[in-house]
Specification:
By secondary structure, the protein is mostly helical. Helices cover 80% and strands 0% of the residues. It is elongated and about 70 Å long.
Length: 273
């Protein structure tokens, strides 16, 4: 990448981040979501750690605990408090991966469709900037803040789990090597897929909300993963996460390729005029 291309990309980044900061509702949502997914697991662990085991067992089906013990032997040596913390922490740690789906989708949707509605995309497309430079800049506008917020929130969650877990066994059962792999490597891949999917949809619609909602399809596999853990059908292990990461990597490459093929600047200029 030469200096000219870098200057063009940097100029677009600065311009679009300034415009995004003027969208108060968007900025509020981008702050609220990471804060919510950071506070919820920490507060839940804190509360569970300060509730008696008798209260935790009230209204609980003991057969559910026995089933989970059979499916996940790592829970067998835990007390009721430890087990409850571990189970809640596991589910919330997976739901944490919603962040790299929604955050970039919201930014990327505004970056393309929002500019169209404000009549600022057409002049940009008419400039000498190359298509790949424009796509890279649009992607980085969403990718950089997404990765920053996701990693900061994730590190706070890791610190909160380490602080409020009632035992090292609980901490280790939540912050497993499998989850750390998914968080560290899966988050940027999920963000890339969300961004490119939004760009693909954005190049065909005129409403930012429609483009943003399209990324909701990515939540379906995540919900399936959570349900599989809740029911005990699946225990996340490094070997399984390695396969998931390979699939995510392939999906990211394919989505980038498709987005590059679909994002036709000439077609956008004529269709959106």
């Amino acid at each position: 990448m030469n200096n000219t291309a870098m200057r063009k990309i940097r100029a677009i980044l600065v311009k679009e981040w300034r415009e995004l900061l003027q969208q108060k509702s968007l900025v509020a949502m981008l702050i609220f979501l990471p804060a919510l997914f950071t506070v919820l697991p920490i507060v839940a662990l804190f509360i569970i750690g300060h509730v008696s085991e008798a209260d935790l067992l009230k209204g609980t089906n003991l057969n559910q605990y026995r089933t989970l013990l059979d499916l996940d032997p790592a829970l067998a040596a835990m007390s009721v408090t430890e087990m409850t913390q571990a189970l809640i922490g596991k589910q919330m740690s997976i739901m944490f991966l919603i962040l790299p789906i929604f955050i970039p989708g919201s930014i990327a949707a505004y970056s393309v469709v929002g500019e169209k509605t404000h009549r600022t995309l057409e002049p940009l497309l008419a400039t000498p900037i190359r298509t790949w430079e424009l796509m890279l800049a649009k992607s980085l506008v969403a990718f950089i803040p997404t990765l920053l917020m996701t990693y900061v929130a994730g590190l706070l969650v890791i610190g909160g789990v380490s602080l409020f877990a009632v035992s090292p066994a609980v901490r280790d059962s939540i912050l497993t090597p499998a989850w750390l792999m998914l968080f560290a490597i899966g988050s940027p891949l999920i963000a890339l897929i969300s961004i490119t999917l939004t760009i693909i949809i954005s190049s065909r619609v005129n409403d930012p909300r429609t483009a943003q909602q399209a990324t909701a399809v990515l939540i379906i596999p995540l919900i399936g993963l959570v349900l599989a853990q809740v029911t005990g059908l699946l225990v996340l292990r490094p070997e399984l996460i390695a396969i998931v990461l390979i699939v995510l990597f392939i999906a990211a490459i394919l989505s980038i390729y498709i987005a590059g093929r679909i994002f036709d600047r000439e077609a956008i200029l004529t269709r959106w005029s």
